[in-house]
Task: structure prediction
Amino acid sequence: MRAEILLLALAVGACTWAFRVLPTRADLSALPQGGWLSRFLAATGPAAIATLFTASALPMVQGGAPVPLLAGVAAVLAVFGLTRSVVGATLAGSAGYALAFAALT
Amino acid sequence: MTDSRPSSFADGLGAALPIALGYFPIAFAFGVAATGAGLSGVEAFALSLIIYAGAAQFLAIALVTGGAPLIVAAFTLIAMNLRHVLYGPALMKRAGPGASRRLAWFWAFGLTDEVFGAALGQLARGRRFSEAFMFGLGLGAYASWLGGTALGAWAGGGALAGWPVVEAGLSFMLPALFLALLLSILSRVQLPAIAVAALATVAVTLAWSGTAGILAGMIAGAVTGVANRRAGDAG
Result:
C-alpha cells in the first residue's frame, strides 16, 4: 500500500469523523421550540436528502438519459406509494431504470 | 407507527437493510473502479475502511490517478465531506432532549448521508432514539460498504464491462435510495425547503461545481426552513 494513499485516507477520514461526531455534542437543550435554529435544524434533513437526490440524478439528466431516469423515479414513487417500503422502492427504482435502459439499447 | 419501547441494536440492523442493499452494489462498483484505475485491492479497501464516504471515495480515485498533489486532494475531499457537520445537530434535535450521546464518538463515525436519512425516517415514524439503535444502523451499512468494496476489488477493473444493463441499474441505486428516503420523511410543511434545496443544487452545480452545489442546496434549503414559521414544530 502506497504511503501517500494511506496518508490521504487518514487525513480525510479524521476530518470526516470530526464533521460527523463533534456536532452531535452541541447542547440543544436550551433551544426554544420554534426558534430560528430549531427551524433550521428541522429543515436540514429534508433539504439534505433532496439535495443529494438532485445531485445524484442531475448527471443523468445532463448525460441524456431522461427516459430511464423517469422510469426509475416513477418506479420508486409507485412502489413507495403502494408499500411504504424504502427497500422495495429502492430496488424497484433500480430495476425500472435498468429495464428502460435495456429497452432503449 | 409509534413504538414506546427503546430501540435496540437489532432494530438498527433491520433499519439498515435498505441502506445495505443500496450500498453493496455501489461499493462493489467503487472497488471495480478503483482497481480498474490502478489502485491495489488493499488501497481500495483502505479508502472504504477509513474514509467511508462514497462520493469522496470516487473522487479520490480521480484525484489520485490524476496525479493531484496530496494536500490538494485532501482539501478537496475534506471540503466535499463538510456537509456532514449539519447531520449531528439535526439528528440530536429530532432525537429529543433526553437522548444519550455518550458513545457518539463511536457510532457517529457511521453517520453517512443515507444513515442520517434512515435515522430521521425511523424517528419520524415513531421510533425512539437510542445509541444501540444507531450502532446497529451504522454497523449494517458499514459492513455492507466494506463487503461490497472487497468483492469489487477482488472482481477487478472491468468486471461490469460486459453487463451494461446491470451497470445501468446499479448506477441508479443511490438516487433511488435518496428518493425513497426523502419520501419516508416527507411532510407538507417542509416542501418549500425541499424545492429550494433542489433548485439551488441545480443552479450552483451548473454554475460552479457539484461539491458547491451540494453545500449550497443543503444550506439554502435549511435557511428556507428558518423562514417557515411552522417548520420548527414539524421536525
Q: What stands out?
A: Residues 72 and 96 of chain A are 5 Å apart (CA to CA).
